[in-house]
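Researcher: I'm preparing a figure for a lab meeting and need a structural model of a single chain. I don't have an experimental structure, so a prediction will have to do for now. The sequence is pasted below. Please return the structure as tokens so I can convert it later.
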Amino acid sequence: MAIVELTIIPVRTASTSLSPFVADIQEVLAQAKEPIKYQMTPMSTIIEGELSDLLQIVRRLHELPFQKGAERVSTSIKIDDRRDQTSSMEQKMKSVELKLSK
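Model: Understood. Here is the structure written out token by token.
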């Protein structure tokens, strides 16, 4: 399993508000045919799944603001692809929480 953190910033839109674009991204993720988990945060979206699936989804999400009228899109991506053991969003959080409870 890989984890991708994704921030998409549409540029030259009718408004400075990004929430309509964020809502569109969440709808695409909710309807994704790929087996993924995702979590919206105040500054980005985190997606968990097979790397090949995640890269296809990232491409669709990057194109979305263009379809909604943006003239330019800046997308930042972080990929955590751990292969020595199973990793997930939940496992990463539990690992930190365990260390905090000591």
